[in-house]
Protein backbone atom coordinates (compact mmCIF):
# COMPACT_ATOMS: atom_id res chain seq x y z
CA UNK A 1 0.00 0.00 0.00
CA UNK A 2 1.17 3.52 -0.78
CA UNK A 3 1.78 6.07 2.01
CA UNK A 4 -1.36 7.91 0.92
CA UNK A 5 -3.46 4.75 1.29
CA UNK A 6 -1.93 4.06 4.69
CA UNK A 7 -2.88 7.58 5.75
CA UNK A 8 -6.43 7.05 4.46
CA UNK A 9 -6.62 3.75 6.30
CA UNK A 10 -5.54 5.32 9.59
CA UNK A 11 -7.98 8.21 9.17
CA UNK A 12 -10.79 5.79 8.35
CA UNK A 13 -9.91 3.71 11.41
CA UNK A 14 -10.13 6.80 13.61
CA UNK A 15 -13.53 7.69 12.10
CA UNK A 16 -14.81 4.17 12.77
CA UNK A 17 -13.56 4.27 16.37
CA UNK A 18 -15.16 7.68 16.86
CA UNK A 19 -18.53 6.53 15.50
CA UNK A 20 -18.44 3.34 17.57
CA UNK A 21 -17.40 4.93 20.86
CA UNK A 22 -19.71 7.96 20.62
CA UNK A 23 -22.81 5.98 19.64
CA UNK A 24 -21.86 3.24 22.13
CA UNK A 25 -21.69 5.68 25.04
CA UNK A 26 -25.06 7.17 24.04
CA UNK A 27 -26.61 3.69 23.83
CA UNK A 28 -25.23 2.87 27.29
CA UNK A 29 -26.50 6.08 28.87
CA UNK A 30 -29.95 5.75 27.26
CA UNK A 31 -30.28 1.97 27.00
CA UNK A 32 -29.48 0.99 30.57
CA UNK A 33 -32.27 3.14 32.08
CA UNK A 34 -34.65 1.69 29.49
CA UNK A 35 -33.62 -1.83 30.49
CA UNK A 36 -34.12 -0.96 34.15
CA UNK A 37 -37.54 0.51 33.37
CA UNK A 38 -38.57 -2.69 31.58
CA UNK A 39 -37.52 -4.82 34.56
CA UNK A 40 -38.96 -2.75 37.41
CA UNK A 41 -42.33 -2.18 35.68
CA UNK A 42 -42.77 -5.81 34.64
CA UNK A 43 -45.25 -8.12 36.37
CA UNK A 44 -43.96 -8.65 39.89
CA UNK A 45 -41.39 -5.89 39.55
CA UNK A 46 -40.57 -3.40 42.28
CA UNK A 47 -42.62 -0.73 40.47
CA UNK A 48 -45.10 -2.89 38.55
CA UNK A 49 -46.93 -0.99 35.83
CA UNK A 50 -47.94 -3.17 32.90
CA UNK A 51 -49.20 -0.26 30.80
CA UNK A 52 -45.81 1.45 30.88
CA UNK A 53 -44.02 -1.86 30.45
CA UNK A 54 -45.98 -2.91 27.38
CA UNK A 55 -45.89 0.55 25.81
CA UNK A 56 -42.15 0.88 26.33
CA UNK A 57 -41.60 -2.66 25.07
CA UNK A 58 -43.62 -1.96 21.93
CA UNK A 59 -41.58 1.17 21.13
CA UNK A 60 -38.30 -0.67 21.67
CA UNK A 61 -39.42 -3.61 19.54
CA UNK A 62 -40.56 -1.21 16.85
CA UNK A 63 -37.13 0.36 16.50
CA UNK A 64 -35.39 -3.02 16.70
CA UNK A 65 -37.52 -4.41 13.88
CA UNK A 66 -36.35 -1.79 11.36
CA UNK A 67 -33.25 -2.87 9.39
CA UNK A 68 -30.37 -0.47 10.04
CA UNK A 69 -29.92 0.59 6.41
CA UNK A 70 -33.61 1.63 6.28
CA UNK A 71 -33.36 3.42 9.64
CA UNK A 72 -30.25 5.18 8.35
CA UNK A 73 -32.19 6.68 5.46
CA UNK A 74 -35.41 7.31 7.40
CA UNK A 75 -33.56 9.35 10.04
CA UNK A 76 -31.88 11.69 7.55
CA UNK A 77 -34.24 14.62 8.40
CA UNK A 78 -33.60 14.15 12.13
CA UNK A 79 -29.87 13.83 11.51
CA UNK A 80 -29.87 17.09 9.54
CA UNK A 81 -31.82 18.77 12.35
CA UNK A 82 -29.35 17.63 15.03
CA UNK A 83 -26.00 17.77 13.22
CA UNK A 84 -26.76 20.08 10.31
CA UNK A 85 -25.85 17.53 7.65
CA UNK A 86 -26.70 13.97 6.66
CA UNK A 87 -23.15 13.11 5.56
CA UNK A 88 -19.97 12.43 7.47
CA UNK A 89 -18.89 10.76 10.68
CA UNK A 90 -20.84 12.94 13.11
CA UNK A 91 -24.02 12.52 11.07
CA UNK A 92 -23.69 8.72 11.26
CA UNK A 93 -23.56 8.81 15.06
CA UNK A 94 -27.25 9.82 15.26
CA UNK A 95 -28.76 6.76 13.53
CA UNK A 96 -26.11 4.48 15.05
CA UNK A 97 -27.03 5.61 18.57
CA UNK A 98 -30.76 5.37 17.90
CA UNK A 99 -30.37 1.85 16.49
CA UNK A 100 -28.08 0.66 19.30
CA UNK A 101 -30.10 2.04 22.23
CA UNK A 102 -33.10 -0.34 22.02
CA UNK A 103 -30.75 -3.21 21.16
CA UNK A 104 -28.71 -2.61 24.29
CA UNK A 105 -31.83 -1.99 26.38
CA UNK A 106 -33.00 -5.54 25.70
CA UNK A 107 -29.55 -6.97 26.48
CA UNK A 108 -29.45 -5.04 29.76
CA UNK A 109 -32.99 -6.21 30.56
CA UNK A 110 -31.95 -9.86 30.25
CA UNK A 111 -28.98 -9.33 32.59
CA UNK A 112 -31.09 -7.46 35.15
CA UNK A 113 -33.78 -10.16 35.15
CA UNK A 114 -31.19 -12.75 36.18
CA UNK A 115 -30.55 -11.03 39.52
CA UNK A 116 -31.49 -13.31 42.42
CA UNK A 117 -34.99 -12.43 43.58
CA UNK A 118 -34.02 -13.36 47.14
CA UNK A 119 -31.55 -10.46 47.30
CA UNK A 120 -34.27 -8.02 46.26
CA UNK A 121 -36.68 -9.41 48.87
CA UNK A 122 -33.95 -9.19 51.53
CA UNK A 123 -33.35 -5.49 50.85
CA UNK A 124 -37.10 -4.89 50.87
CA UNK A 125 -37.39 -6.64 54.23
CA UNK A 126 -34.71 -4.32 55.63
CA UNK A 127 -36.74 -1.29 54.52
CA UNK A 128 -34.90 -0.50 51.29
CA UNK A 129 -36.85 1.60 48.80
CA UNK A 130 -36.93 1.21 45.03
CA UNK A 131 -33.87 3.37 44.39
CA UNK A 132 -31.91 1.45 47.02
CA UNK A 133 -32.80 -1.83 45.34
CA UNK A 134 -31.76 -0.50 41.93
CA UNK A 135 -28.55 1.07 43.20
CA UNK A 136 -27.44 -1.59 45.67
CA UNK A 137 -28.81 -4.81 44.17
CA UNK A 138 -29.96 -4.74 40.55
CA UNK A 139 -27.12 -2.83 38.90
CA UNK A 140 -24.19 -4.23 40.96
CA UNK A 141 -25.38 -7.84 40.67
CA UNK A 142 -26.07 -7.55 36.95
CA UNK A 143 -22.89 -5.59 36.20
CA UNK A 144 -20.94 -8.45 34.56
CA UNK A 145 -23.84 -9.10 32.18
CA UNK A 146 -24.29 -5.38 31.56
CA UNK A 147 -20.63 -5.03 30.59
CA UNK A 148 -20.73 -8.19 28.45
CA UNK A 149 -23.81 -6.85 26.68
CA UNK A 150 -22.15 -3.50 26.09
CA UNK A 151 -19.17 -5.31 24.55
CA UNK A 152 -21.51 -7.11 22.15
CA UNK A 153 -23.18 -3.79 21.35
CA UNK A 154 -19.84 -2.17 20.49
CA UNK A 155 -18.97 -5.05 18.17
CA UNK A 156 -22.37 -4.72 16.49
CA UNK A 157 -21.82 -0.97 16.11
CA UNK A 158 -18.54 -1.58 14.27
CA UNK A 159 -20.44 -3.60 11.67
CA UNK A 160 -23.19 -0.99 11.48
CA UNK A 161 -20.67 1.84 11.08
CA UNK A 162 -19.16 -0.01 8.12
CA UNK A 163 -22.65 -0.23 6.63
CA UNK A 164 -23.11 3.50 7.18
CA UNK A 165 -20.12 4.03 4.90
CA UNK A 166 -22.41 3.16 2.00
CA UNK A 167 -24.06 6.59 2.29
CA UNK A 168 -20.91 8.63 2.87
CA UNK A 169 -20.50 8.31 6.63
CA UNK A 170 -16.76 7.82 6.37
CA UNK A 171 -14.83 5.17 8.26
CA UNK A 172 -13.52 1.81 7.15
CA UNK A 173 -16.73 0.89 5.36
CA UNK A 174 -16.55 3.97 3.17
CA UNK A 175 -12.88 3.24 2.39
CA UNK A 176 -13.66 -0.36 1.45
CA UNK A 177 -16.51 0.69 -0.83
CA UNK A 178 -14.75 3.58 -2.58
CA UNK A 179 -11.37 1.94 -3.09
CA UNK A 180 -11.73 -1.77 -2.49
CA UNK A 181 -14.99 -2.25 -4.39
CA UNK A 182 -15.47 0.61 -6.84
CA UNK A 183 -11.79 0.85 -7.86
CA UNK A 184 -11.07 -2.88 -7.56
CA UNK A 185 -8.11 -2.35 -5.22
CA UNK A 186 -8.04 -5.75 -3.56
CA UNK A 187 -5.19 -4.84 -1.22
CA UNK A 188 -7.30 -2.06 0.30
CA UNK A 189 -10.21 -4.43 0.87
CA UNK A 190 -7.92 -6.98 2.52
CA UNK A 191 -6.38 -4.29 4.73
CA UNK A 192 -9.81 -3.03 5.83
CA UNK A 193 -11.01 -6.55 6.67
CA UNK A 194 -7.81 -7.23 8.63
CA UNK A 195 -8.15 -3.99 10.62
CA UNK A 196 -11.81 -4.73 11.39
CA UNK A 197 -10.94 -8.21 12.62
CA UNK A 198 -8.20 -6.85 14.91
CA UNK A 199 -10.54 -4.10 16.17
CA UNK A 200 -13.37 -6.51 16.96
CA UNK A 201 -11.06 -9.04 18.61
CA UNK A 202 -9.45 -6.29 20.70
CA UNK A 203 -12.79 -4.98 21.95
CA UNK A 204 -14.05 -8.49 22.71
CA UNK A 205 -10.85 -9.42 24.54
CA UNK A 206 -10.96 -6.28 26.69
CA UNK A 207 -14.65 -6.77 27.42
CA UNK A 208 -14.14 -10.41 28.41
CA UNK A 209 -11.27 -9.49 30.75
CA UNK A 210 -13.37 -6.78 32.40
CA UNK A 211 -16.33 -9.13 32.86
CA UNK A 212 -14.04 -11.73 34.44
CA UNK A 213 -12.82 -9.17 36.98
CA UNK A 214 -16.36 -8.01 37.81
CA UNK A 215 -17.88 -11.47 38.13
CA UNK A 216 -17.98 -12.35 41.83
CA UNK A 217 -19.51 -15.79 41.38
Automatic annotation (TrEMBL):
Compartmental location: Cell membrane
GO cellular component, one term: plasma membrane
Membrane topology: Multi-pass membrane protein
Limits of the ABC transmembrane type-1 domain: 13-205
Alphabetic keyword roster: Cell membrane, Membrane, Transmembrane, Transmembrane helix, Transport
Pfam family of the protein (one): BPD_transp_1
Transmembrane segments: 20-43, 55-76, 82-105, 142-168, 188-207
Any single biological process term in GO: D-methionine transmembrane transport
Family, similarity comment: Belongs to the binding-protein-dependent transport system permease family. CysTW subfamily.
NCBIfam families: PRK10782.1
Record protein name field: D-methionine transport system permease protein
Record organism: Rhizobium leguminosarum
Taxonomic lineage from the root: Bacteria, Pseudomonadati, Pseudomonadota, Alphaproteobacteria, Hyphomicrobiales
